[in-house]
Amino acid sequence: MPTDSRPGTGARAAAPTWVPSAAGGWIDERRRRLTWLLQLRLLPSQTFRLGVATAMVLVWVVAAQAVPTLTPASALAVVIVLGGYFLRLRQLTMLLFLVATALAYVVPRRNAEDAASISPAALLVLAAVAGVVVLIARSRERLGVHGAQGESMLVELRDRLRAQSRVTGLPEPWHLEHAIRSAYGDGFAGDFVLARKVGEERLDVLLVDVSGKGTAAGTRALLLSGAYGGLVGAVPSAQLLPAANDYLLEQGWTEGFATAVHVTLDLRTGAFEASSAGHPPLLRHRAGLGSDRWSVSEEDGGPALGLLPDVAFPSSRGVLEPGDALLLYTDGVVEAPGRDLATGIDMLSRAASELTQGPGLRGSARRLVDAVAAEDDDRSVVVLWRAGVEGRHVAPGATAGA
């Protein structure tokens, strides 16, 4: 949990933002293409892959007899690991039987000659490696995938769902940034952001915090982000949270609740409407008041999603004038053991004030999240602002994006 939300205080979280950099996206795409090439083109069938692994074992048997000092038993661990990566469980079992047969043939002869003999410890290590590989293969077999296909499917699904949070083509003077850090630096989190521009007049932003944290909540968050992504921008703003609540109730999960805040913005006039489902109150900055202080929205919201049927989610309305901004966040940013929620919100408000007084709001979502020292909860920040007449809140030379 966070201990201090002031910029520059505490250790930076190790996990990357949800929005990948251009270089990171290029690397991920190259990795996926390489995996596809290896598994579907160069190694097209299980029979072919098993044949390659068999040839590697036979080469080891010949080399173990010819040059025993250069052919340790540990070399077979590489074959076992590669087999677990590329083979299904049935073919992997056949490979392990072949490895055991090769060892049964080579070990007595090498040990009898005392020429680079194979110790019992080396055999135990190979057995341990084989056991771990089999457990992993069995887990993948339950999913109906093998090798890197399971990881590739999850990564591609995660990246496609994350793309729903990216909005391109926002007209000036509007800006939107967000950043998410998962608990303990995991690759999946229970927080997600959905944003969609509807035509040229409307922007919808939904920030959701699924119960749980890190990978434990990641699977439910992936499912909900896909379902809610079809709702954002597709239904009237007043119906979004009720529809999201109905969907979550239908799932019947034992840990089925989530908090959410939804903001819909008129890009022509700056009028906005915000509604909450058990979520921490949003922060608002009003440049026209002559202060860089962020105020807390005092309007009451409805209950968390997935708890009660047929509930209402009251909304508040306002107008973002030039220089104004909204700050949405999850409870992981403001909660900490031994500290009440109001204190955490006040600390976040002061941290945001330091940004508006100094470097501006470009990159503010990332800076606010990175200022959180603890890493035992998911943390998300969304900043939506309307630049002033003279570009207030935008640091010179800064670039957009979270």
UniProtKB/TrEMBL annotation:
Recorded protein name is Stage II sporulation protein E
Domain PPM-type phosphatase as annotated: residue spans: 175-386
| Signal peptide stretch | none
Q: Name the source's superkingdom.
A: Bacteria
An example of a GO molecular function for this protein is:
phosphatase activity
Instruction: Could you list this entry's UniProt keywords, alphabetically sorted.
Output: Hydrolase, Membrane, Transmembrane, Transmembrane helix
- Organism source for this protein? Pseudokineococcus lusitanus
Give the stretches traversing the membrane. Answer: 94-112, 118-137
